[in-house]
Amino acid sequence: MRIAAGVEYDGSGFAGWQVQREGRTVQACVEQALGRVADHPVQVVCAGRTDAGVHATGQVIHFDTEAARSDRSWVLGANTHLPGDVCLTWARPVPEDFHARFSARARRYRYVILDRWVRPALLRGRATWCHYPLDVERMQMATRHLLGEHDFSTFRALGCQAKSPVRTIHEIAVTREGEFVYLDVRANAFLHHMVRNIAGVLLAVGKGEQAPDWVPELLAHRDRTKGGVTAPPDGLYFVQVYYEASFDIPAGRVPLHVPVLDR
What we know:
Blueprint: E1 2-9, H1 26-38, E2 45-46, E3 55-64, H2 71-81, E4 86-94, E5 106-115, E6 128-130, H3 136-143, E7 148-151, E8 166-177, E9 180-187, H4 194-206, H5 214-221, E10 236-242
Parallel strand pairs: 3-10, 5-6
Antiparallel strand pairs: 1-3, 1-4, 2-3, 5-9, 5-10, 7-8, 8-9
Helix pairs in contact: 1-2, 3-4
């Protein structure tokens, strides 16, 4: 039987999603918890690997098992054995041809910026602090150049292992709600550090350090060394994975302190 599940986690205390020789990882915690519920070793596949410090409200996984458990038992049983900074939010059987990664049609991230002159305490590690007043209109103008299919070499990490730098951004928006500035990006797939590098460029534009027309210049360079700084992971949330409706995968969730935008 193949089971799909949703995973939520605070990435602050993890070395990332993927199991590593050293360091605490989300994958290792989830596999250990599910293995105790299934009473056999479990290997999970995720929709998208996240880096150290990156959070998720809508991560999707799948795993195969011979154990017969109810959806509720998978969730409550796993959460009993999971640490407080990670939990399953739902679980359900899926067809054998469902694959958390390869069946995904699109993914959505949200980058949360706290734009005020005083540093945060309660949101430390959960939002990126910017003490310069940001011009959201300029940032939104810059995003228009990123829509559609492009070679995002300038916006991927130097160590990115993706075979192709070409990705398609379906939707990108910068909005403000009081002291919060939100960057929402939905694309068919993402390169390593792609959203954080986009955020770094948009922060420079919002501060007035660069013009919105800097973005097409960066795309044309296809050179990461010309792409500005990589924004911190603190404000990055993996929010949703999009699948065919026939798989009946629940919609993702946004962080509690972030209002829901139209999807």
